[in-house]
Known about the structure:
Elements: E1 6-11, H1 27-40, E2 49-54, E3 65-69, E4 73-76, H2 80-91
Helix pairs in contact: 1-2
FE2/S2 (inorganic) cluster (FES) binds next to loops.
Amino acid sequence: MSYYQRHIFFCLNQRDNGEACCAQLAAQSAFDHCKARVKALALAGKGGVRVNKAGCLDRCAGGPVAVVYPEAVWYTFVDQADIDEIVDQHLQQGRVVERLVLPDSVGR
Ligand code: FES
């Protein structure tokens, strides 16, 4: 059994050269909201859920992006309601939120 049941990584990469990056697309506020909701639902910690920052995940064209393990499901999101759905459905119940899944064809 793994230490965490599920682990979500948010790209918070900031580029200063004008190229698109997740930080321009409110990734930090999505990360903060996810962390707060996981904590509020008492999902955080050993045997539960861990929310982590990441650098560029190299799928910038679909930004902002996050990935959930162990299922390796990639998401793109727009607002806090999307984050709520990922937390409530996937992180808590193990159900993939199909409408937010990032297609495999989306790369950098
Ligand atoms: S900047 Fe977010 S995936 Fe590259």
